Amino acid sequence: MSKNSYYVTTPIYYVNDVPHIGHAYSTIIADMLARYKRLSGYDVLFLTGTDEHGQKVEKAARERGRTPQQHCDLMVGPFKDLWEKLDISYDDFIRTTQERHIMVVQAIFQKLFDRGDIYKGFYEGWYCIHEETFYPESQLAEGCCPECGRPVEWLREESYYFRSSKYQDQLLQYIKDNPGFIKPDFRRNEVVSFIEGGVQDISVSRTTFKWGIPVPFDPDHVIYVWFDALINYLTGVGFLQDEEKTAKFWPADIHIIGKDIVRFHCVIWPMMLLSLGLPLPKQVLAHGFWMLGGAKMSKSTGVVVDPNRLIEEFGADSVRYFLLREIAVGLDGEFTQDALIRRLNGDLANDLGNLIHRTVAMMMKYFDGDIPEAGGLGPLEVSLKEEALGLQQVVDESINKTDIREALVQVWRVIGRANKYIDEAAPWALAREGQSEKLKTVMRTLLETIRVIAVLISPVMPETAEKIWDQLGQANFTSVTIEDSKRWDMLAPGTSVKKAAPLFPRIELKIGES
Ligand code: MSP
Questions:
Q1: Peptide bond preceding 502: is omega within 30 degrees of 0, i.e. cis?
Q2: Tell me, what's the pLDDT at 331?
Q3: Against a cut of 0.70, is the pTM above it?
Q4: What does 60-78 look like in DSSP terms, one character per residue?
Q5: What is the pLDDT of residues 81-118, one digit of tens each?
Q6: Closest-CA residue to 211 (of 15, 76, 18)
Q7: How many whole angstroms from 61 Cα to the centroid of ligand 1?
Q8: Region 237-263 average pLDDT
Q9: Residue 208 has what pLDDT?
Q10: Which of 112, 203, 329, 377 pairs as cysteine with 381 (C-beta 3.0–4.6 A)?
């Protein structure tokens, strides 16, 4: 029987500059979901990539004395490097300058033209080069771009239009019928009011620059960068290239995006799909922004945190954990290094690290590391075992609601419970009193709990989970499945725990640093 499929995407990133923590955030959320679904037995397609066309890229290349293609080829490197350092397990990396994508975009443009949903007209309006967007006069901020504050230009050009207005009612109905489509709920409400306010046809071609995919039947025009970019989700799934793959993975299960690109994903993209007669993605999840000193972190303002530096200093897993644990997915959060260090010292070094460190140290001391069999469980053991074995279901519910933070809170609840159990069961007293059967039961209960925890943190902290697995003396981490977190007494007989360096050394907090 074929496995259930799961298709998750990140936005494709502009190559006008190097990635920052905000981009890492979109990608880490997607990676966590991809890993969790793989662990749960799904056949996963996880797509990320780069958005390489448009005036902004053309301009960035010109300023650096490169051709746009040379510029893109160079700028893809830092994204791929960062994803490698962050252990991002993408299955495919799409670049919008790839032949496969150009073919799909042109075919779709032609198809919508043939069916009368794309037509030729004129466009006049205020245009911000930086945002690649036209704005109505009423939306300008003191005559400048409402997004980035840069001056806007008045442009008049011949342009092809996409008949979005035609799909307004159909899309509204879809959003109302499918409450899970746009998350969080407050974003859905915003989208509904926006559509109810009336959707204009959108301009989908440009003649004022060249760096884009040519309109197949009118090469003076290049296709609007957002029309081009959104289609990446279909190119990546083999649309018009591999029917079987498309049938398997489309519609996408989830598009992860930031709140700034909600309208593109929740209005324009679904309308394009309705026009194509394709099913809509099951969910679009819009996360909030990481702020720095109260301002949105952004490449263009230079207010950024370089994820490479954080990874070097604190490790990829700590960064992944912090970003997913610190804020609820839809909300904004202020990024400070102090907060990261606090999480590292508290949740990682103190709670998780200590649980493992204490358990392994006692195992070495009392049993030379050899994992014992448990005897009869007392009430304390039964209660911890129940909590540990019930954890997967709670985590699953949270993840399916895309409440990743809550999933982590629940795992840490059991970590806290296990630490408390050590104090309550007092293995040192049992050792002193020569109660060796009881001592075996206590240690085995702790080890099994740690094993369950290792499985459940692996989507968020893959490297740490593997290290814990190794310390537990277990092999074949790659064949672990979610089922292993629902079973007890799984530690292989005759195996021994290994002593290792602490997983998370404490970091000293320097006052005033952020
Ligand atoms: N190229 C478009 C997306 C096309 S998808 C078909 C784009 N690229 S981007 O590089 O500017 O941004 C990519 C993602 O990073 C967006 O989801 C955006 O919300 C996210 N972030 C950019 N800055 C951010 C923060 N400061 N914090 C969190 N995420 C933010 O938009």
A1: no
A2: 95
A3: yes
A4: HHHHTT--HHHHHHHHHHH
A5: 999 999 999 999 999 999 999 999 999 999 999 999 99
A6: 15
A7: 20
A8: 98
A9: 83
A10: 377
